[in-house]
Design brief:
Blueprint lengths: L1 E6 L4 E6 L4 E6 L5 E5 L7 E6 L6 E5 L4 E2 L1
């Protein structure tokens, strides 16, 4: 897994799982999964953004493809 961003004033961590290309938010203190999203992100994405309310995310690949 790769870290994408700290969220919620650094109380949680957004992680990318390269094997199934899913995104997971984990509580930084306990390590428990808060939510998981199984969007097939581009394997070679170059940028990632998420809205403050965590309702929407966007990933863009080097090849110009995206997923939200």
């Amino acid at each position: 897994m790769s870290a994408l961003a700290f969220l919620d004033r650094d109380k949680s961590l957004l992680l990318f799982n390269h094997q199934d290309r899913s995104v997971h938010e984990r509580d930084w203190g306990s390590g428990r999964v808060i939510w998981s999203y199984a969007c097939p992100l581009p394997a070679d994405f170059s940028a990632w953004a998420i809205t403050p309310d965590r309702r929407w995310g966007l990933a863009l690949g080097f090849d110009g493809k995206g997923c939200c």
